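Structure in, sequence out. Go:
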């Protein structure tokens, strides 16, 4: 509980370190990613496992729900991202093309596309219905640690171990600006009203 710091629920069942946690849009479910090569969907209030998402061939780095809560998107060290049915746990598509670990994966605001960040120094934009890679955002000189959409979906912000963040046009893949000044790797970058926040 945020107000008191009280632990309300313990989600137990993974066999390795838990690398990410995210709520469903309605807050009734939680999805976790783990180094045990799985993701799990849990009921928030009961703390029990609804589904275990198996299929990745290596550690799972992140897992998130789609904006409508019907899908789960995972990113893995096996160099792929996967789209799953949240209701059945079935793999609906595998996003393949990165040349190294996929660090993170997120849905576009409309839920029609996915954005991945990779150790191969690029981010990629994918069409979910077909698994087609629509755009490669190339230009960083190091691992891309995160990639996020702007609230309207028209821009992308990436963070990198090359000590910079970059702002891109989602429609063309053009780099619009490079945010410099950090003295160490940039671990994440997000949009806020009228500004971008980048964190070391």
């Amino acid at each position: 509980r945020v107000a008191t710091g009280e632990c309300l629920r313990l989600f137990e069942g993974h066999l390795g370190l838990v690398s990410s946690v995210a709520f469903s849009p309605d807050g009734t479910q939680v999805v976790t990613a783990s180094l045990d090569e799985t993701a799990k969907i849990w009921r928030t209030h009961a703390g029990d496992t609804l589904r275990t998402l198996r299929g990745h061939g290596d550690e799972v780095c992140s897992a998130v729900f789609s904006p409508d809560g019907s899908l789960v998107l995972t990113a893995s060290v096996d160099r792929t991202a996967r789209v799953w049915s949240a209701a059945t746990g079935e793999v609906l598509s595998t996003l393949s093309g990165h040349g190294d670990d996929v660090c993170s994966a997120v849905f576009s605001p409309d839920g029609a596309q996915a954005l991945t960040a990779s150790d191969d120094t690029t981010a990629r934009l994918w069409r979910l219905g077909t698994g087609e890679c629509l755009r490669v955002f190339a230009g960083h000189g190091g691992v891309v640690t995160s990639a996020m959409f702007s609230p309207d979906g028209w821009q992308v912000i990436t963070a990198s171990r090359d000590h910079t963040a970059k702002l891109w046009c989602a429609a063309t893949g053009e780099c619009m600006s490079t945010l410099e000044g950090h003295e160490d790797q940039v671990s994440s970058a997000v949009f806020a009203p009228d500004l971008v926040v980048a964190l070391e």
